[in-house]
Amino acid sequence: MRLTFKGGVHPPYRKYTSENPIKEIGIPEEVIIPLSQHTGAPAKPLVDRGASVYRGTKIGELQGFISANVHSPTSGKVKRVFEWPHPVALKSLPAIIIEPDGEDTLDENIKEDADYLNASPQEIVERVKEAGIVGMGGAAFPTHVKLSPPKEKPIDTLIINGAECEPYLTADDRLMREHADEIIQGAYLILKAVGAKRGVIAIEDNKPEAIEVMERAVRDFPDFEVAVMKTKYPEGAEKQLIWALTRRQVPSGGLPMDVGALVQNVGTSRAVYHAVRYRMPLIERVTTLTGGALANPGNYLVRIGTKVEDFLKMAGGLAEEPVKAIMGGPMMGIAQYTLDVPILKGTSGVLLMTAREVELPRERDCIRCGRCVEVCPMFLYPTRMAYLIKNKRFEEAREIGVLDCIECGSCSYVCPARIPLVQYFKYAKAELRLLAQKA
Amino acid sequence: MSGNSLYLTPSPHIFARENIRGIMWRTVASLVPPLLAGIYFFGLRALLLTAVTVATALLTEYLFLLLRKKDTSAVSDGSAVITGILLALILPPRFPLYAAAIGSFFAIAFGKQIFGGLGNNIFNPALLGRAFLMAAFPVESTVYPPPIRSIFGLDVITQATPLTAMKFSHIKTPYINLLIGNTGGSMGETSALLIILGGLYLIYKKYVDWRLPLSYIGTVFVLGGIFWLINPQKYPDPLFHILAGGLMLGAFYMITDMVTSPVTPKGRVIYGIGAGIFVIIIRLFGGYPEGVMFSILLMNSVRPWIDRLIVPKRFGEVRK
């Protein structure tokens, strides 16, 4: 029996690129570094037009408790600090625009620490914070904040998330197969930073090679084990993963640390290794570029700040005209209105879909089939919440749990009436935020 | 490429293949075997009756969509066809065709479209149509012909349906006849076996939550059994209760109507138990021999209340 959660769906996985090794992509002619690539306050720019920057130079300083530094992914000159289309906000936000010089000169402050495995917890957290690391599975929550739980909330279990339950995406699968030793070392450093007793690397059973490689890698780390999870969406959702592995329910409105757990994506874990060992900031990541429209779908090591347009050109261009461009996976990803948007720290995939792959849903009235109730991994009541929200009864929707929605999209996916349920819940959350501000 | 040719729809960007149309038409397909059995037992007149109710249902649906200025392509979603077939299955096979057409019109017009069409109706349209015909054509509604054919040379009961025979004359129809449909009654009342098969298919396809038929039939069985144990001379045994009459059709095709039954698993169990209690009350103490239709219509009316009160316990919920 594979470990799993209750509810969920089985979308077609379409992991076309799982056999494509990670390929490094070149340096684009222009780099866009948004100051807000993470949950929380945007970074404050440290450079202005004309400034020289190098690979790894800090160009934006975190502001406030939940925020993250941003760095230049290559050497060159700052062209300007200006608003640019943002792939998550879906509007233009301040960004630092850099013209690379092609030399890719490393910032001289970035030096290896040979004794990195003996770094103290404080040093680990400090280096992670300095490196601007955020959750790379998509949520982009600043990692140093997750690594600094208050004393009254001790963490005993660290979960390294290699579930990769989103269809199409294979970046984490490839990372585990090709860089298992770096992931496990990063995981060890995280375990040390928070003082957890046990580490679990969770992988869905549709990735047998990754499971094998990781199982070999954990042999040298007695605190760690590999957990094989059932392939089901959203297996990699934080609360669902914690429950599947520990049978602890993160309380409504609470955080994983409330039940002594910490979840980090495998890519984040590797970034922590680079930050602690080499003091290398998060300036590149592995992203799956896939979908029917691409000539060469694959997994690419791409500099953060590369525009999607340049990314796909450098990766071999288009085979067909896409009708939909998605940042992230097909279940939770965000449809883009322009390919000028840059790759962010949290961009796990770019999906360019053709007309054949895309269904344009036509909403009908709910027939109360109950499928949304059956699949909701948070055990919510999607159809009732949508009904209340349509009638602007936001407070009642809150009472039955709309704020607990993790926006995984399982309900919308199964709805035979094609009601955009998740969209209603996002809308209600925004309305409730506004109401709370007014109050 | 030009950015303005990109679709901007919210996530998710992929969907399960199943949609309303698929659900409805596959439900229609599952009704074909009992329908064919009905035609075998009662002749082509039964087919004609079905043709009339289905055609009237489709025509009424189309007219109302047109009048309400809605997308008329919804007429082909299969839901009106289901209502037409179900109505034919619960009418006496020789029911006057013009009256059947009136009933079918009533089912779609006042049972469904007037509430806002598919998804918005409170009552099961076919059952509402049947109830209307019972009031408007009381004589025609209760004359049941015997089947024109019999299988295995078994005796067939004439005139009275098994439930009527039981209720008013204490004559019991053999179980085997009830199971294969070799009895008097409406088409859908008669073939328990094929209806169970169709129902199992619907459960397999997850169009039907097993909780609904199980809680409904289970309640009738248990409650009927209690009365039978109290007085076996007066009350029929529980097996007879579940095989005779329209209980099987009701349990697999009526109480399970998605639109008019509750959404939550717990709500569905409550609903099934409630309807089961009504069946026994009506069959044993009411004026009618059969209680399936009213049991479901009665529960239809409390369905919105069940759906509002039964809220699933959330993940990580802290109950105050």
The helical percent of chain A reads: 25-40%
CATH topology of the domain at 116-278 in chain A: Rossmann fold
CATH homologous superfamily name of the domain at 116-278 in chain A? NADH-ubiquinone oxidoreductase 51kDa subunit
The largest sheet of chain A has its strands arranged as 1-14-13-17-15-16
Could you say which overall geometry of chain A the principal axes of the C-alpha atoms support?
globular
What's the β-strand tally of chain B?
Answer: 0
Instruction: Write the H/E string of chain B, N to C.
Output: HHHHHHHHHHHHHH
- By secondary-structure content and strand pairing, the structural class of chain A works out as alpha/beta
Largest sheet of chain A: 6 strands, mixed
CATH architectural designation of the domain at 116-278 in chain A: 3-Layer(aba) Sandwich
- Could you give the count of β-strands of chain A? 17
> Could you describe the largest sheet of chain B, including whether it forms a barrel?
none
Instruction: Give me the number of helical elements of chain A.
Output: 12
Shape of chain B: globular
How many angstroms does the end-to-end distance of chain A come to? 49 Å
- Tell me the number of structural domains of chain B: 2
Radius of gyration of chain B: 21 Å
Query: What is the C-alpha radius of gyration of chain A, as a whole number of Å?
Result: 21 Å
The proportion of residues in beta strands of chain A is: 15-25%
Give, in order, the helices and strands of chain A: EEEEEEEEHHEHEHEHEHEEHEEEHHHHH
Average pLDDT metric of chain B: 88
